[in-house]
Write a structure and sequence with these properties.
The chain has 9 helices and 21 strands. It is an alpha/beta fold. Bound molecules: zinc ion. Zinc ion binds near residues 11, 44 and 47.
Length: about 375
């Protein structure tokens, strides 16, 4: 066998521009475990999609990550809360609310790809009790929990080929960014739709959240334009595509189309390259800022016990003495061997660094700061 050919864009086959400095940074897994440096990040010079070059090395890495996968470990399996002005709510209940105008009141057949421990199916079941629900996962560890959800009629391990029947709605929540060939994956999903059926796609928005590029097992780091292009390549047209349902994420409802859809801005790989270079520089400045804050603090903690907090703690050589979280299912537990504290339980005089995008960090500091605890926020991007 000769050498492996250079990976090309897994959406359009175009050549890839690689961000050479990327491999120096530590990474994190999508289930929030620190992960080794040495990753590769690229942007397609044709369709401007930011992605991991998918080759034998990346595939082996992703396989190693999934072998140890433990979703929502910080909260003992409870779904991640999404916080905004209305307070915290599970992501699934927001998505189900958004779906209401798109689903008829009559019973619907739903297939949730990558259903995890059933968070989304549970939310659907309580809002649409007449629905017939099915879920898929890559192993059977959550089988009993999923089948116990009212209305659930099937649990499958494997791809579309093992799932019988056709569906009014196929949901893929935090799935598509893991798929090495997302266009053919979406095409296969179309074949499992009933006439008039819809696909719901939920992915992280790389453009809204620089930390997304650090996630080693996300092979596509979607933004609004690249998600739209991906759907259109699979002959799917968005009926809804928005970043306003869940912060830092894209929500998309697509339907099959037989007519090629034109329009939209042409891809701009050069602008994408500049934007990602800018995001990487911001992450480096953030780490340097936090390192300095840690070295001068009486007691140093990190806000959040998810992707960004876990990554930054590893970058700082595990120098956080504690984590701070507002999610009640996490408070009082331990993360990376250190306590997760409620904001009210942080000792006076401590410094808490907030590794979030600047707008979100500023809101946290405004809400929680001003007392005896110093909340340090990153510089603007
Ligand atoms: Zn491409």
């Amino acid at each position: 066998m000769g050498p492996e050919p250079e990976a090309r864009c897994h959406l359009c086959g175009g050549s890839l521009y690689r961000f050479d400095s990327f491999g120096a940074r530590l990474q994190v897994t999508s289930d929030c475990r620190p992960w080794q440096a040495g990753g590769r990040l690229a942007i397609c010079e044709t369709c401007a999609t930011v992605q991991r070059p998918v080759d034998a090395a990346w595939s082996a890495e992703a396989e190693a990550i999934y072998a140890g996968y433990a979703i929502y470990d910080q909260s003992a399996g409870a779904e991640q809360q999404v916080f905004d002005a209305d307070g915290g709510r599970p992501r699934s209940s927001r998505i189900v609310e958004m779906l209401e105008p798109f689903l008829a009141d009559a019973a619907v057949d739903v297939l949730d790809i990558g259903c995890g421990n059933g968070g989304f199916l549970r939310a659907l079941s309580s809002r649409f009790p007449a629905s017939r629900l099915s879920g898929t996962e890559f192993d059977t560890r959550n089988r009993a929990a999923v089948l116990a959800i009212p209305g659930t009629v099937g649990f499958y391990t494997g791809g579309f080929e093992v799932v019988p029947g056709h569906f009014d709605l196929i949901s893929m929540i935090h799935v598509l960014e893991h798929i090495v060939d997302p266009v053919s994956f979406l095409r296969r999903a179309c074949q499992a739709l009933k006439p008039g059926g819809k696909i719901l796609i939920q992915v992280p928005d790389r453009a809204a959240n620089a930390f997304d590029v650090l996630i080693a097992d996300h092979c596509t780091h979607f933004d609004l334009d690249s998600l739209r292009r991906c759907c259109r390549s699979a002959a799917l047209e968005p009926a809804l595509l928005t970043g306003s349902v869940v912060p830092k994420e894209l929500t998309c409802i697509v339907t099959p189309t037989t007519v090629p859809v034109l329009g939209g801005d042409p891809p701009d790989p050069e602008a994408g390259r500049v934007a990602v270079t800018h995001q990487l520089a911001w992450l480096d400045r953030l780490a340097a800022h936090a390192r300095e804050a840690a070295s001068s603090a009486a007691a140093f903690g990190l806000f959040g016990s998810s992707i960004s907090g876990t990554w930054l703690d590893a970058e700082l050589g595990r120098s956080a003495a504690f984590f701070v979280d507002e999610d009640p299912s996490r408070i009082g537990r331990r993360w990376m061997g250190r306590p997760i504290l409620a904001p009210a339980d942080v000792a006076a005089g401590a410094t808490v660094f907030v590794p979030l995008i600047p707008a979100a960090a500023a809101r946290i500091a405004e809400r929680l700061g001003g007392g005896a605890v110093r909340y340090e926020i990153p510089d603007t991007e």
